[in-house]
Amino acid sequence: MKKTTLIGIAFFLVVAGVILYSTMSMTRYRVKVCMQYQGQFNCATAAGSTKEYALRQAISTACAPISGGVTQTLACERTPPGTTEWK
Fold first, then answer.
1. Where are the domains of the chain?
2. Is the full-model pTM beyond 0.90?
3. DSSP string of 37-84?
4. Average pLDDT by consecutive 10-residue portion of the chain (87 residues)?
């Protein structure tokens, strides 16, 4: 093989390793929350680099299908989760 081909392969492997490492570190915490809002109920799971971020994402994902519009979504997201299960 040519030297430039080997350098290209090495560069690709380093970049792929960095991407894999950064992706794995972003999913350090996983949480499942169940939200109840205006008589409707939904659960969602999310992952994040911090507990706060993972919890916020799970709440937002769980509220999306059971609320309509910005005002209801914000109100749902301010409601404490019915259940929270850290994984």
1. 29-86
2. no
3. ETTEEEEEEEEESSHHHHHHHHHHHHHGGG--HHHHHHHHHHSPPSEE
4. 80 78 73 96 93 95 93 94 94
